[in-house]
Amino acid sequence: FQTAMTIASTIRTLLAAALAALLPAAAAAQHSETIDIEGVEIVGHRPLKQIGIQSTKMDSLVLKESISLSVADILTQNTPVFIKSYGRGSMATASMRGTAPSHTKVTWNGMSLNSPMLGMVDFSYIPAYLVDDAELYHGAGSVGVSGGGLGGAVTLSTRPADEHGLSLRYVQGIGSFSTYDEFLRASYGNDRWKASTRILYSSSDNDFRYTNYHKIKQPVYDAEGNVVGSRYVEDRNRSADFADFHILQEAYHNTRSGHRIGLAAWYMSSHRGIPKISADYRDDSSTRTRQNENTLRAVVSWEKISGSFKAGARAGYTYTDMLYTYSYDLTGTGEQMREGIHSQSYVNSLFAKADIEYALSDKWLFTADIALNQHFVQSIDRSVIVQDGSSAVIGYKEARAEVSAYASIRYKPTERIGLAACVRDDMYGDSFTPPVPALYVDALLSKRGELTLKGSVTRNYRYPTLNDLYFMPGGNPDLRPEKGISYDAGLSTHVRRQRLDFSAAATWFDSYIDDWILWRATPKGFWTPLNIKQVHSYGIELRASLSVTWSQDWSLKASGLYTVTHAVNHGDPVSVNDASIGKQLPYIPVYSASATVRLDWRKWSIVYKWNHYSERHTTSSNDLRISDSVQPYYMSDLSLERRIATRPLDLSLRFDIRNLLDEEYETVLSHPMPRMNFGFYIGITPKFRNAAAGRY
Question: Does the reported pTM lie above 0.70?
Answer without folding.
Answer: yes
